[in-house]
Amino acid sequence: MSPDLARAHEELWRSYSALGRREGYDQELVLRETYHIEKILGADPNYVQDTPEVMPELQFLISTENRLEEAGRHILGARILPEGTPPESVAAWRVPQLPDDGIARGEQFKALDRAIAHLQDWERNRKSVPEGR
Hints:
Layout: H1 3-23, H2 27-43, H3 47-50, H4 54-72, H5 105-128
Helix pairs in contact: 1-2, 2-4, 2-5, 4-5
């Protein structure tokens, strides 16, 4: 992957993260952010060491996706609201409508599966390294 393309993927995942933290997450936003993180992880094996916040972000995204999936069984258009959303504004709250990014839904879900595998490997490796190293 070219450095410019890697930078674009990084800027996109960070932008989606900022949007989600400010406005809340729906499944589309989770999948988009995960997709761009996965593109970098697949191309740069050192990214996890160079960017220590990326794996906790993936943990958050997978957890959010699981919560959305569970809620979606009961609520059409489930969303996770930002911390501190006043209860009176919940009914009117909507995730911002994002323009089409041209990434097929199937590719987004494949990236989610790869992200889960990366996260599991990372957690296994973290547990196998003694404290203080």
